[in-house]
What we know:
The chain is elongated, with a radius of gyration of 22 Å. It has helices spanning 21-30, 78-87, 142-154, 159-170, 184-196, and strands spanning 15-18, 35-40, 46-51, 54-60, 70-74, 91-98, 103-109, 115-121. By secondary structure, the chain is of the alpha/beta class. The strands form 2 sheets. A 4-stranded mixed sheet has the order 1-4-3-2, covered by helices on one side. A 4-stranded mixed sheet has the order 5-8-7-6, with helices on one face. The longest helix is centred in the C-terminal third of the chain and has 13 residues, at 142-154.
Amino acid sequence: MTPAVNTEYNQVFPTLLVDDIEAAVNFYTNRLGFSLQFTWGTPPVFAGVNLGNVTIHLAKGTPYIDGPSEVAFIISDADEQYALHQANNVEITVPIEDQPYGIRDYRVKDPYGNSLVFGHYIYNQGPAIKIERTDVHVRLEKRLAALLEDLAVHKRMSVSECLEETLLHTFERVGDTVASPHTMHTLNYIQELKKKHGIDYDVHGNYRFSE
């Protein structure tokens, strides 16, 4: 058969079998953090829930017959979602970890045996880059240095690694690649750190620093 090379596939809706639609909707919305899109039938036999721009369907049926179904989600910040699922006592079958295939992810199970994977991209794939580090004398504004130390802890990096990542990103033109090394969750956290450390100057404030 000749493939339809011009066909565009814009959406996909994985369907998971559950034996109770209302209970499943409650679990997905109140514990996993999804939003309800719709239910169909009285009583409902079908429903749609979404996370960001990804929608999955829940259909009344008998799970386990052919083994559990699985859906994987690429999201902006797996650590944030992981904390939510821990707080909601979701059954986590594989803890969060940086994987060799370039994703930081974890796996949970819903009450019907379906497996759900949540992760975000990391950039650890490819051959090792042999380097030699050197000491650089750097003097930073005191509050900014304190923020940097907290940020490095948040990102599970050393201060040096955090600076290296930030520098490499600032070398890129906006639009060519990702100009910021931070997820939206981390950017929001940085705003909290700015308040914590009393940083009240803008991004051009360093031009006016005076000792």
